[in-house]
């Protein structure tokens, strides 16, 4: 037993030394000159050599409250000894010596302090903040599977019933395209966003497909007699029953019916005449109300969105998401890139691939 | 035997990290002086002109020019507005929130932010890839970071930039070659920086500083972001 414990101890020490030698902080760098994170900023200002006043006299002209309580960066910090730099050459030990940990402000780079309660006495200063989203990284998940998108619901402005959000996400995954992408992908956060056409921003304005169509979250107490029941068996072999009426799908709730995203696999006898033909991998699909249909002998079947498909309009229920320097429209797991085709604003479905 | 193995590993660790560098003490003195001056500022305003090389879809070089105006008040106020080929946008940080606004798209992102300029810049860059103009120079450990990151730092004499006498300093490692011009007067401030990315087709990034105003009185309202009419608050994807 002692022998095993002893072995574990030595192996642990060796592994720790090796990890240290590889420089675990190499990736924790910022800006163009890649400053190590632990040196970025200091809120305490405790090291400031100059005794600065914490506030200016009240006699300053005007009513502006001038916050002059500290240096813009907490003061220049010198940790590496300059005494080791005689004349022109010096040997610098790259191990960082004697970092004053008391002065360090360590930033959690994976999770910045967002939506935290700092306990500040702020009167009516709360602002509407943006939803912060992430794409889950799963082994083998390269965008074609059923990705789960995490949504921070604290400031959710989307008109989707929470109970049905999972439903809507589950039916918005994207099929990969077999067409080769000539354009290099847009890269952000370890993901590559492929599109055939260049980014051309235009504001997201939801489109309404006429009086019969209803967006996600729309609630009605009763349905028209023309509505039919469509049964779907989900991934867990659970049977789900939808009500379909004129291009809109509803789930039954306690009080009535709520419009949801078209369930993939739903077979319907007809789709509204307003449905548009869209080309997907050199075949034609039909697009209506944010759903894609393939025609078959029994009518039309709802199919997943396919990367590279260009659509002229998007329904309500999406949200604009800033991804690096670009703004996409997101519906569950589907990202639409704003583009322009022959001078007309359109959207292309993005192929999102995780970096290997 | 195990103790020997650990000892050898420790030696390998120490020797692998201790490398001979060519660090010019004159260059470090000048950079230190500049960093001391920047670190002693309680507020500052300046403008920059940038030129950023990128490769287009065909792999050809394409240079993007931009002009930015920056203002900050320590320890927790920052704003910058940028107009250029890569877009027109601005940042506003009031100590509680940071907002990014795109003039081209008329949309914005507002996030709660850390409590100092540098922690805000650091965390927003890492989480969302926000790129704050000229942020490098305001890291309090600017000189130490150069010493640590570059194998050679040299002072190469004086050169003129826009009729201003400047100290000319270069720094190199396997990935980058940096040229730095610092004004050769009583107030030693950054004048120009050029970074060449050796492993990325020698793409170049250049920033030229102008119109420095040291310790100005800047009203807090400058740092407050008020969304323009019809601007949309949008979501944002985090890198992690």
UniProtKB/TrEMBL annotation, chain A:
| Disordered, as annotated region | 35-119
Q: Which superkingdom? A: Bacteria
Feature: compositional bias, Polar residues: 52-70, 81-91
| Compositionally biased spans, kind Low complexity | 92-112
Pfam families membership: DUF6515
Against InterPro entries, the record matches this protein to: DUF6515 (IPR045398)
In Swiss-Prot or TrEMBL terms, this protein is called Uncharacterized protein
Species source reads Aestuariibaculum sediminum
From TrEMBL, chain B:
The chain's coiled-coil residues are none
Signal sequence, start to end:
1-18
Question: One Pfam family of this protein, by short name?
Answer: DUF2092
Q: What highest taxon heads this organism's lineage?
A: Bacteria
Keywords for this entry? Answer: Signal
Protein name, UniProt field: DUF2092 domain-containing protein
